[in-house]
């Protein structure tokens, strides 16, 4: 370790080290908590932002893990301080955790800013927690390491493996089609989530924790370790040790996050067959680091990145299999030529150095280039008169016959309308129809929920139909699959063309041409636009009103406009002002 800063240069010195009345208060109140001065004087204070909650099943082990992080911090000569933050529990929070991602990001940044934190350990994993914690820590830019929650163990249904989300959608469709019984469904409910940890398919959680690792924000190998594995606990302790050294080395996120590190993360997401949600999150994370990232960059890189991870929903296996097969490091070792390996990471080594001993132990789970699931196009960005600012689709997880498709629209004006009518016998719909959902975007829903895997009508399920072209301005769970065109931008609620679609309009999707078009004349489109009027905002007070006023569209990462990096120095100046302090 190269010590670059002295104890009196620590942020926490302003709280604990100086001799004035305020610092007397800080020290006496720390004594009140049972700590002797020797426990903290001259040591880095490590804030541990913990997103544990009784209502977050993905983070139940964080009560134990935080003790392991603290053990590492103590051993390395730091002073650990646990700071709980809003948990963003994907299965429970309504209308969607995405409504609150920026709230957790703000909470993280302000906890770190307002308390004597010299460095931080970020504990998250359940979907939005990863980008939120990282967005906040990057904005604050103090030494930071992310501890990924780790995937839960494989689900079990009478000896068959079950995958979070993916098998829920699959067996729900089979139940509605009359192919399984209520008793079968109950057994699936009991066995699909049987340990702590986040979803164990290649959903948003696994996608974003893997992206965090590739960005250099976790210890190498951390993202793939299953949550209940003892090696996960060891990783937590090692993280606690390492963050103390990072403070002395003054190694901060903006020292190594750069355009190439985000390119590396996108390459990894694509090779993993990762979640479409990664677009909004990586764009928002990059922005916090002052890096401009466009949705078109995902498309560019997709054209030359193979899908190598044989993981659900695109493939067959689950994250536990992926870990035993060599994990993310194994996968990255197969695409080294596509990565910038010279970028630094939290352990002070480059990505290339961290991959030196990486190996693949099961070539069916982690494919090589010759046996790739897809040679390219894990994700594709679409444009056209229906989505002038872009939309996204996941060709890896849809029926190939729909890659080029034209069909008549069946339009639902919002989620309630969809639920009320989708299973009606009299609904005029065939397998060639294109299902359209409006008012499901960042402003419209609001919060851009994961409603984008629109249900196949029951009468078509009974005929054996399992995929159709579906279009919305919503997101889709990373565990979902199907020919779902998502993130249509601008969204319908703000007058995007999706708002102007009517039943029977022909819609044309062509993934190879990257196009999504409404086949009506420009004149007719303009006529409809002239008669469109906005609906009333859904929130007039509180956080919801703040959200509606400042949320940006999907192609901008759905961050709040006032959280752009500009102006951070001004905030820091106020924080550092001894008059205020
Ligand atoms: Fe937490 Fe899926 S519910 S990651």
Folded structure, characterized:
By secondary structure, this protein is α/β, with parallel strands linked by helices. It is built from 22 helices and 14 strands. It has helices at 13-16, 21-32, 37-40, 62-75, 101-114, 129-140, 166-176, 182-191, 204-214, 230-249, 253-256, 259-272, 278-288, 295-302, 319-324, 327-333, 351-354, 415-421, 458-462, 522-530, 542-550, 568-576; strands at residues 45-50, 79-84, 119-124, 144-148, 155-157, 160-162, 380-384, 387-393, 404-412, 434-437, 469-472, 484-485, 506-510, 515-518. The protein has a six-stranded mixed sheet with strand order 12-11-10-9-13-14. A four-stranded parallel sheet has the order 2-1-3-4, with helices on both faces. The longest helix is centred in the middle third of the chain and has 20 residues, at 230-249. The model has no long low-confidence stretch (mean pLDDT 95). The structure holds FE2/S2 (inorganic) cluster. FE2/S2 (inorganic) cluster binds next to loops.
List keywords for this structure.
35% helix, binds FE2/S2 (inorganic) cluster, 581 residues, six-stranded mixed sheet, alpha/beta
Write a compact overview of the structure shown:
This protein is an alpha/beta fold and 581 residues long. The chain contains 22 helices and 14 strands. It has a six-stranded mixed beta sheet with strand order 12-11-10-9-13-14.
Secondary structure layout plus pairing:
Blueprint: H1 13-16, H2 21-32, H3 37-40, E1 45-50, H4 62-75, E2 79-84, H5 101-114, E3 119-124, H6 129-140, E4 144-148, E5 155-157, E6 160-162, H7 166-176, H8 182-191, H9 204-214, H10 230-249, H11 253-256, H12 259-272, H13 278-288, H14 295-302, H15 319-324, H16 327-333, H17 351-354, E7 380-384, E8 387-393, E9 404-412, H18 415-421, E10 434-437, H19 458-462, E11 469-472, E12 484-485, E13 506-510, E14 515-518, H20 522-530, H21 542-550, H22 568-576
Parallel strand pairs: 1-2, 1-3, 3-4, 9-10, 10-11, 11-12
Antiparallel strand pairs: 5-6, 7-8, 9-13, 13-14
The protein binds FE2/S2 (inorganic) cluster.
